[in-house]
Amino acid sequence: MLFVAVPFFVLLFFLYVWRLGTLVSGYSISEITTIRSSSSLSTIKNNPINAPHKLLQFVFQHFGHHGAIWMRSVSVFFAFIFFVSLFLILKKWFGNFIAFLGTTLLAATPWVVLIARSATADIMWLCPVLVIFGYAFLAKSQRWQSLAWLGLMFCLVVAIYTPGLVWFMIAAFALGWRQILDLINRTNFTAAVTGLVMFMLLVTPLGYGFYLHPSLIKDWLLVPHSIPALLILAKQAGWALASLAYRAKQHSNYMLGRMATLSITQSILALVGIYAMGKSAKRELFALLTLLAISLVAVSLNANPILMTLCLPALAIFDAAALRFLHLKWLRVFPLNPLPKTFAAVLISMLVFFQAGYALRYSLAAWPHSIETRKAYVLKYTIGKGSEK
After folding, report:
1. Is 83 among the domain residues?
2. Residue 6 covered by a domain
3. Which helix (H) or strand (E) holds 380?
């Protein structure tokens, strides 16, 4: 396992830490807006959406750390939390080897890399993986049931501050309410009540923000102020799907030109993973497809391609399921011979690390030197004055 773990952590360092504050010459408009919205507790109180991300940026700014590396490190921090959560989910479902490779595929997705290296709160749209982890940990836990319940409540608190995640939480409860109620009944009464009280207290700032500014509710629900025509919705949904595997409708700060969010390898693996989970994990497959549908609807309604980030945890799990499926197929051909087993592990690892090489070149070499990136990241942040060119 060491031959997989060491390259994985070296990869994470270069993708997410190397030249974090200096890879581009300045901030984007979205980054400046996010930094200013987290500059004081009063601004966070007035707009508590993405409060967990804003609070960490506020702490850094409060202690005088206003530089790009500090502001962007908050997104990197949350990215690592999501990667650990994904790894633990995949470990329970598919084992250590596939967990490392599946997590690497998500971490080596250029779109994810560039979002995590941004001072915006866009990385928080990966929060579904945190919700899935909290539920999976509670469902599998026997000895630490009370702790797992409190952990799930904390995961839900972080997620509920993210726009649109409430729809996934409602859909997940609708699909598995019997299992969820059974898990609550298995939990110690004191711990169950403590968790619910903790949840209500921690989401109070969100409710208070909605009370002060009711218009924030639509932003939180990802409901636009005007609904597009049905034909436009259909076209935007089609472009949203196309942006995953073929080509995006328009350029975004997190891509080169109009390149697809996923590589060809990831797209093919996702289709294989859907097939594999359809044979052995239909309930989990339906929940993940629901997350994909929520993401497509959100993009269609808001014409915002960044919202496709919501479905990346589901696609990452599909990719891991495909790797597991292909690995098992190979092992069934050579059930006893250790040499083909080793060869299969090397082949699958090479497939994943070719993706990692692609991500390194895309994110750290090509993207910062593109014309669009140079035009977008030109702003400077001055304390008390906002931004200036």
Report:
1. yes
2. no
3. strand 380-382
